Amino acid sequence: MKRILLTFVALAAAATAQAQTKWVAGKHYTNIPPQRTQVAPGKVEVMEVFSYGCPACNQFRPAMQQIAAGLPKNAQIVYLPASWNAAENWPMFQRMYLTAVSLGVADKTHEAMYDAIWTTGELGVVEQNTRRLKTKLPTIEDAAKFYQRTAGVKPQDFVNASKSFAVDLKIKQAEAQIKAMQIGSTPTLVVAGKYRVNNDAFKTIDEIIELVNFLVAKEAAAAPKPAAAKPAATSPATAKP
Question: What pTM value is reported for the model?
Fold first, then answer.
């Protein structure tokens, strides 16, 4: 039994060493200044920096679904909206998403919002016939009608929340974090607020999934282990003779 255990440990160590050799910092991923994460203690954050108005993000949806399905239980997907392309309405989509987060309906409506922009055209930014940018882009009021239909939020409540100090603060925080992480394109994945995945280094989604899982395991292994609980002291009155 001891020999089998030692063999298993040796194989696990070899697999870890092989993964560390395969995935190279500076090539496959970049170490960035550590960011505060949004997940509970013990969880590893896997963030997608995105915009609903980004066609590449829309095309990346099946890949994100595969990534989410392939994550271990200690990892959690979160989203951070970018705003740098005003011509395609990204600032409005950013405010809209962060408003949905503040109202607790962002996860419920995430996929439906992509469909409303890129499939049905309900909140589209391009003309479906010509594929040219619309001269009149969707407004926050238009978005409010979508959230009424998909999540039951009253339109005026959504509009009011979108103008709140809390959402303004979330926008400032998102902008500061995107800048700190040196995000230059979307979609971009960031693991544990420390490792930015370099999309150009990969040919298949399976490689990205493998790297993300490697980085999740790397972060989990480096996390401090909780201290063992000390046994409760036994009072003299209840001690056994």
Answer: 0.85
